[in-house]
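Residues determine shape. Take a concrete instance:
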Amino acid sequence: MISRREWLQRTMGAGGLLALNPQAVLANPAGLITRAIPGTNEQLPIVGLGSSATFAQVARSDDVDALRAVLKQMVDLGGKVFDTAPSYGASEEVAGRMAQELGIEKNLFWATKLNVAPRGGGSADPNAAREQLETSFRRIGKPVIDLVQVHNLGDLPTQLPILREYKEKGRIRYIGVTTTFEPQYADLVQFMRKERIDFIGIDYAVDNRHAEETILPLARDKGIGVLVYMPFGRTRLWQRVKGRQVPDWAREFDANSWAQFFLKYVASHPAVTAITPATSRPSNMADNMGGAVGRLPDAAMRRRMIQHMEELP
């Protein structure tokens, strides 16, 4: 196996790998791996794009051409799920403008968030919440937003009814809640057991498997879609495998890079609907989309992947 950098260099030069060739992906009989949104026939490609981290950093800069190329790359390769939030700096505004300039806004499954509650807790201003939603509509340029989630469980008694109101009016298709903070996991589980929602957003990775204990099984039992954030642990997993090659046995589930190794672990959990790793590089976007092509690891292989990562120094 070759490293992520070497793999990208070779495939960008040869143009031969499925993940870097839109026509080859579309010609592949299996196509992209997709999952149905629970309770519907709507299929989403298992790998999409997030707009926090490096995407948000570039969105704040004067040169955002790379982000335009990233969005186009995802759509060209058959992806459609794009996750953002008003709190991700300029990400929502910049991505909305670029999607409209590229004419791809209708191709995207647009997931954004709502939260005007004070940090550390407290009540959200309903008027401010509605204004934040209307600002998202203006930025995205679509009359209907596919998914809006209450970010980090912020004042659910105030903000979730507003999302339900927008959904009843047909302006939002799906609603949900998110958290990536372990102290909030118990509250998330309690909420999932009591309330009917369409989606949750949660952090999950091969070395961060807390969600496997209760959250993911509960989502499957309740028919709740799952967006996964931070499948690379932000930069944590990249630091652990720096300078190391992907093991040869990863070929058994068609992983040709570390990104695909990490993404295919997450994608192989049946409760996961889509994964939204953030990137600001088109080459990394292509690499990530390779995680939605080919086979996925089975239970025995998942255990082997965990063991491999745990044995790294």
The longest helix spans residues 126-140. Residues 190 and 215 are 10 Å apart (CA to CA). Confidence is low (pLDDT under 50) at residues 6-27.
